[in-house]
């Protein structure tokens, strides 16, 4: 009767649920937890006895039930269970049979212990013999019921020791392996390799190496991605082999578990805001054994917290059940973990997975980064990703950066973070980023931020490397050079020594050679006879507007030829016209968005949008207003050009200080004239203001004559038109803390009061609004 009830209760469920592997795994895990197998395994393990399981599946039991009803199916199950008891004792005489369980419907599990000297290969032979013996003994019954022979799938697995896993998890892993062997998914060679792989896992002989992820805003290290390396001189030394094999044999969860524990235990500390990026397979995240709080326990053991961890969900594997994945990710996000979508551009789901997962980070695959400096299509894709990231409020990380030109292109595009061999190879302990690269990133970030897209961007900022050939190279070799790369070059530069003397565009050369007698006339001639001897050669420091104007004034047949760029007469590369036009279009977009034309900083439209975003998101912020004292008098006395230079100085100081002493995601805007706004976290604002005051007071003095610097005054007219000696220009900063929606609504009024108070104080100061009751009590420090 128990078997009949089992059929009624579980058989129809299994037919539906096992169609989905994730739900099937959940049911399998639940079924195991409901059997006495777990307790018996725990007892055997406590006694130090090696244990194993035999899995048996009756392939056509559903046909028996359909033809002969539940009673007929129950008869077959009873016969199989009896045969298992008898035949297992006969074929495994040295084994101690702990249990024979009808786990569900047509599946049986035998749990047994072995002596430590048992031969695993001999065990496989005995299991095959057991399968044949059971089938032969029951064939007559099956022929009677179905008119065909019985089919059985039988597999086995040893339950490994040393995993430091709960008994039900170890039993679950062994059963999955036995199922694969039973259904022919694992051959004998794989079974042998599986034993070696399990030994590596049980002894935790997987090592973690770390690759830094660098902020393209400050040059600081955001965090490290943990990568896995296997034992040297082993088949499992490479990470791609480790994880593909683990997935094949059903050991993905314990493999990633060992990797996570190793990565966390070996990281040797992180800064409060630094991150550890851990790769997680989508299937592992949905594993019934994954959500147990184990990662949190390990983090606490090493003085880390969930906010230090980012789970990287790779796009290289298809995600079949987004609902289950999202439930698990939300569970982790609620604890403070963050999520990244990895390998974007090289995976299965593309934009759909980004839209569903809503990650905090998007990691662009190296296939899009490779040669991005020479590939307009890849630049366009990355720009689109940056736009998407802005819309969904996440950050972009470029992977696989290997060359300086790739780095420069990504910096100019505005990518937030990067990693790759150029910055540092994966290593243990955590490798630093070379100081020269950090300084370059900081300078480039400052340059891009200070000049913006409107003011000061030069043709040198768009340069891409080019191929050069000597003027005496024959034309046929030049054509081969043009077509030798994966993506044919649009053109190349002809040099005499190191001096550029001409340009060859591929389309022009092809047209020449395709004419009648073109090949015979020109292919063996030196390239100087067919090159353009007067290309547009332009200095790297030429502003984009001027370079564009000169390029568009060329004769019609040269209109789309590359620009040859030099620095002090030395060739540094070329700029394709398409890239120039794309950049000018971006400039127009930035201006249309309200960027300030003097500093290139976001204007009032962007400022209002940022305040709205922070207010609606309930984000606590310290809002800093900066204003120059006596600026109108200086502007009248020294002229608008010098006044603009002083405003640019203040913008540079604010950006540098916010970048260095603020937090990632801080905002700097230019309201109008000499008035700026900064948005940071409240705990950073005082430090930012102190540095701004110190730097401004030191650097502003260069805008005055030696005599005025000596006196600390300059001669000008005040707001009432009275001429006289006035204090050297100072800066006033007002800090207003906003912690809820109401405080953002009251921001304008509170800021106006505070700015007025700050400007009433002598010299450069900052003040902070501290409320007690209904009365503001400003405090200030200089």
Question: Can you give a write-up of this model?
Answer:
It is a single chain. This protein is an alpha/beta fold and 782 residues long. The protein has 29 helices and 26 strands. The chain is globular and about 115 Å long. Residues 1-28, 449-456 and 772-782 have low confidence and may be disordered.
Record the SSE blueprint.
Blueprint: H1 2-17, H2 21-33, H3 37-46, E1 51-58, H4 61-91, E2 96-104, E3 107-113, H5 120-146, E4 152-159, H6 167-182, H7 188-202, E5 207-215, E6 221-229, H8 239-248, H9 252-266, E7 275-280, H10 282-285, H11 294-301, E8 309-314, H12 322-333, E9 338-344, H13 351-357, E10 361-364, H14 366-369, H15 376-392, E11 395-398, H16 404-413, E12 417-418, H17 435-451, E13 468-470, H18 475-482, E14 491-496, E15 499-505, H19 506-514, H20 518-522, E16 537-539, H21 544-552, E17 563-567, E18 570-575, H22 577-592, H23 604-616, E19 621-629, H24 631-638, H25 640-661, E20 667-672, E21 675-680, H26 682-699, H27 706-711, E22 713-717, E23 723-727, E24 730-738, H28 741-745, H29 747-759, E25 765-772, E26 775-781
Parallel strand pairs: 6-7, 7-8, 8-9, 9-10, 10-11, 11-12, 13-14, 16-17, 24-25
Antiparallel strand pairs: 1-3, 1-4, 2-3, 5-6, 5-12, 14-15, 17-18, 19-21, 19-24, 20-21, 22-23, 25-26
